Request: fold
Amino acid sequence: AQSVTQLGSHVSVSEGALVLLRCNYSSSVPPYLFWYVQYPNQGLQLLLKYTSAATLVKGINGFEAEFKKSETSFHLTKPSAHMSDAAEYFCAVTPYNAGNMLTFGGGTRLMVKP
Amino acid sequence: GAVVSQHPSRVICKSGTSVKIECRSLDFQATTMFWYRQFPKKSLMLMATSNEGSKATYEQGVEKDKFLINHASLTLSTLTVTSAHPEDSSFYICSARDVRRGELFFGEGSRLTVL
Reply:
């Protein structure tokens, strides 16, 4: 079984500030990990994914995440927030052999202040 | 552009009627599609796994007679909410797996409002 915990349902940052969205997972087998972004009334867009290659993964829109097995974490970061980053972010996990059947975290709403 | 398309994006219906939502993979064949439900300000909950040519696999607690899933072809899965009630109002999202690209793509979602 696997699960995902996203610490902080709401995160607020100023424009230009560092963005840090936290994700911790549990999985009984090696996991694949994902970050998705969702804008209002839209589906999910993949930001980045970890599939057992490099532990530091770079994604779209300047986001990156680092897989830390010892901490069972996959936190999402961006050096400088932009107003357009305001959205809901979901961390998700799937066992490496589960055919992309994802388990999602509760989501974190990112707000960016001017 | 989108590689997985859902239709309709919004639907309003009266209580007791049935509503069908389509999920299409546009440029790849998908033997497996997934249906999620998202409550307001909540995460996505997997409802069922749709398998082309066979019965869908439902998650615990999801009524299979309420939420009928048909994976009629390699590019189309449909979710029918039967005898809809206001508590069925939600955002429904599908995803499809492109084996060739090794990636899961999500549809744009369908917002169902039952009056």
Remarks:
- The radius of gyration of chain B is 13 Å.
- Chain B has no helices and eleven strands.
- The first strand of chain B starts at residue 4 and ends at 7.
- Chain B has a mean pLDDT of 91.
